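ARCHIVE CARD
CATEGORY: sequence design from structure
SOURCE FIELD: tokenized fold
FIELD CONTENT:
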């Protein structure tokens, strides 16, 4: 099914676009890829390329773990010499390795409790999708429990609802939101 993420459709193709061709060919030929990422040399089995939020991401096996690398942050990208150097797991989908919502990518492990006004409940439900649980209230509002790994991105998204959303819990996340609103006032 097609879902709307609310983000503009865009693709950054200028910087590093030659690396995309190298990686795409390496994926097709099952060649390992070597590159530098955050000052660390990497050698991975590239399983797929995914475009998300205006950037290309390489998903692959690195040190026996599936990892994701933003391509515009990689340098010195080279494909290995041996074709058929690895096998992708059956049914593997690279897009499943990359969170859809910006607040899902991060190191925190929080669950936000939010109430959305009836006027935006339909949009909130659509944005949340299957990422959390949401229950319509008798007054038409929506009460949602949303997993949050990146508090800053979550607060940014929540602010897009203006005053039609109230963050109830956790207290520290609510305090962060209140402080941000006070600073802007």
């Amino acid at each position: 099914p097609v879902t709307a993420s609310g983000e503009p459709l865009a693709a950054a193709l200028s910087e590093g676009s030659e690396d995309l061709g190298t990686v795409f060919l390496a994926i097709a030929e099952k060649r390992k890829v070597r590159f530098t990422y955050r000052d660390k040399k990497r050698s991975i089995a590239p399983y797929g390329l995914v475009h998300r939020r205006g950037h290309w991401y390489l998903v692959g096996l690195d040190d026996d773990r599936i990892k994701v690398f933003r391509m515009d942050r990689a340098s010195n990208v080279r494909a290995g010499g041996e074709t058929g150097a690895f096998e992708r797991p059956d049914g593997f989908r690279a897009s499943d390795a990359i969170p859809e919502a910006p607040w899902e990518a991060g190191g925190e492990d929080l669950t936000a409790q939010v109430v959305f006004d009836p006027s935006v409940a339909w949009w909130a439900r659509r944005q949340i999708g299957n990422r959390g649980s949401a229950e319509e209230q008798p007054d038409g509002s929506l009460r949602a429990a949303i997993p949050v790994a990146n508090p800053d991105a979550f607060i940014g998204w929540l602010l897009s609802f203006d005053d039609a959303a109230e963050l109830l819990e956790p207290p520290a996340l609510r305090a962060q939101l209140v402080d941000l609103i006070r600073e802007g006032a």
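CARD ANNOTATION: Helices lie at 17-29, 121-128, 151-159, 171-184. The first strand starts at residue 33 and ends at 37.
SHELF: design records, drawer C
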